[in-house]
Amino acid sequence: MTTPVLYLFGSAAPPVFDIADVVTDAQNRGFDICLGLTPTAAHWLAPQLTELARLTGHPVRSEYKMPGTPDVWPKADVIAVAPATFNTVNAWALGLTHDFVIGVVAEGIGKQIPTVTMPCVNAAYVQHRQFERSISELREMGVRVLYGEDGFQPNQPGQGKPSEYPWHLVLDAVQEITRG
Ligand SMILES: Cc1cc2nc3c(=O)[nH]c(=O)nc-3n(C[C@H](O)[C@H](O)[C@H](O)COP(=O)(O)O)c2cc1C
Prior knowledge:
By secondary structure, the chain is of the alpha/beta class. The protein is built from 7 helices and 5 strands. Helix 1 (about 20-30) links the parallel strand 1 (about 5-10) and strand 2. The longest helix has 13 residues, at about 165-180. The two termini are about 15 Å apart. The site of flavin mononucleotide has 16 residues, from helix 2 and helix 4.
C-alpha cells in the first residue's frame, strides 16, 4: 500500500508551536505530511519554516499558488485542521476562502476528502452565536469535529495550556479514517 498523504493545517492558536512534534508523530504513524498554515500561523512559525519543510519533505504552504503553476503537493488522502481558531472555524463554515488552507478545506468538502478538525477556543469565544452554528454546519457537511465531550473543551480566557491540547485525538481520528 502507498503511504497515505495527510494535509496537516494549523491556524494561529498557541498549540501550533508544537507542530513539529505532531509532524514527527504522524510520520511515525505512517503518513506523508504536507503542512499548511494560515498566514498568521506562518508568521508565528517563521523561524521554523525551513526546518518544517525539511522535516516534511514538502514546501510549507500558506498562500495560493500562482495561476498556471503546478501543484507542489501530492493529492490528500485525509486532512486535519488543528489547532483551528475561532476565526478559521467560522471562515470555513461560512465559505470565506481568502486564505489558502480555508480554500483547500472548503473545496475538500465537495471533493469528499475525509477531514478532521479540532478547535482551540476559549469559553468567551464560544459564546459568540456563530461558533455553535459553524460547528453544526461543518458536522452536517461531513467534517469530523473533535469538540465537546470527545474532543477539545474550551478553557477560560487566558488559562489555555498549549501542552494539554489533545493532539493525539486528531492523529487517532486520522488513522481511524485511513484504516477505513
Ligand atoms: C497569544 C495569542 C493567543 C491566541 N490564542 C487563540 C486561541 O487559542 N484561539 C483562537 O481562536 N484565537 C486565538 N488567538 C487569536 C488568533 O490568533 C487571531 O484571531 C487570528 O486572526 C487567527 O487567524 P487564523 O485563524 O487565520 O490563524 C490568539 C492570539 C494571540 C496573540
